[in-house]
């Protein structure tokens, strides 16, 4: 069971963002990195939006971040969402990647519990065409310690 129904349109990778989507198929998150100003940026573009450099690379990032902002959708904005119930569309501010933000969904938090600043980590869910999409789940900062809390 995926967070959004499988009938939702899947991304159509273009030349600029194909490596981003390819990394997602390997369950990794890769972000565009400018070798000249040594900053990350997203979405991918042919040149650095800050300094115009074409000397760009891709770097794998941790996928940890926090909820920057979100909205709860109650209306079916796409036919596939009909009868699906409330869902969130969240902007995730990634850790340690300058100010890179991804528009995604937090998949394991009920609408009333979702909050700005909540720590999250990336996970990957298949779209209807089998393509893996980056989504996020709640990250418990102390979950690395014992794992026996519940
Ligand atoms: Zn740059």
TrEMBL record:
Which InterPro entries does its entry note? ChsH2_C (IPR002878), NA-bd_OB-fold (IPR012340), Thioester_dehydratase-like (IPR052513)
One Pfam entry name: OB_ChsH2_C
Residue ranges annotated for the ChsH2 C-terminal OB-fold domain, each copy included: 58-125
Q: Any idea what this protein is called? A: Thiolase
Q: Which organism is the protein's source?
A: Paraburkholderia polaris
């Amino acid at each position: 069971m995926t967070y959004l129904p499988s009938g939702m349109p899947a991304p159509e990778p273009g030349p600029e963002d194909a490596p981003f989507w390819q990394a997602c198929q390997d369950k990794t998150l890769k972000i565009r990195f400018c070798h000249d100003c040594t900053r990350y940026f997203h979405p991918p573009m042919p040149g650095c939006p800050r300094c115009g450099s074409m000397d760009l690379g891709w770097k794998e990032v941790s996928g940890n971040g926090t909820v920057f902002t979100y909205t709860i959708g109650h209306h079916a904005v796409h036919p596939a969402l009909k009868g699906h119930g409330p869902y969130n569309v969240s902007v995730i501010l990634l850790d340690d990647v300058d100010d890179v933000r991804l528009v995604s969904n937090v998949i394991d938090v009920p609408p009333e519990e979702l909050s700005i600043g909540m720590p999250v980590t990336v996970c990957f869910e298949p779209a209807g065409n089998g393509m893996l999409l980056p989504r996020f789940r709640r990250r418990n900062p102390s979950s690395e310690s014992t794992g026996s809390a519940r």
